[in-house]
Design goal:
The protein is 61% helix and 0% strand. By secondary structure, the chain is an all-alpha fold. The chain has one domain (11-105). It is elongated, with a radius of gyration of 20 Å. It starts with 10 loop residues before the first helix and ends in a 28-residue tail after the last helix.
Length: 133
């Protein structure tokens, strides 16, 4: 899966990466890790194969855009002043905040891209035989 290019002027992403000590590759990996967790939750909710969701380019693009809006912007809005001060030993706290925002992101999904699949119905005329040993 290719990395979704971010707009060149994304100060929220740059500030968050600097405060957490990530480079571009590490930060993309962090987003992908949360994306996989999100796909597993969505797959379980809508009876999809999680591998199909994980490999969907359009779904990954949607998630990255939502990440930018609901995680990065919110994080910078709420904690941007602290992140600019480069406070020592603050990375674990920032990661906890990101984790909480990513869990909140699990409540959102694109209904146009993910349609619920009904659970497979059991055949009605199944007879079970039990044989004693």
């Amino acid at each position: 899966m290719k990395t979704i290019p971010e707009p060149p002027n994304n100060p929220q992403r740059a500030l968050l990466m600097k405060a957490m000590g990530y480079n571009d590759w590490g930060y993309d990996n962090l987003i992908h890790q949360f994306y996989v967790t999100w796909c597993e939750a969505i797959a379980q909710k809508f009876y999809h194969n999680n591998r199909d969701l994980i490999n969907s380019e359009s779904l990954y693009s949607y998630y990255c855009r939502q990440w930018q809006i609901l995680v990065e912007c919110k994080m910078v809005t709420e904690y941007g002043g602290y992140m600019q001060q480069d406070i020592p030993d603050s990375r674990p706290a920032y990661y906890r905040f990101i984790y909480e925002l990513a869990q909140e992101l699990e409540r959102y999904y694109p209904a146009s891209l993910i349609r619920p699949i009904t659970t497979p119905a059991k055949p009605k005329n199944m007879k079970y035989e039990i044989h004693p040993n």
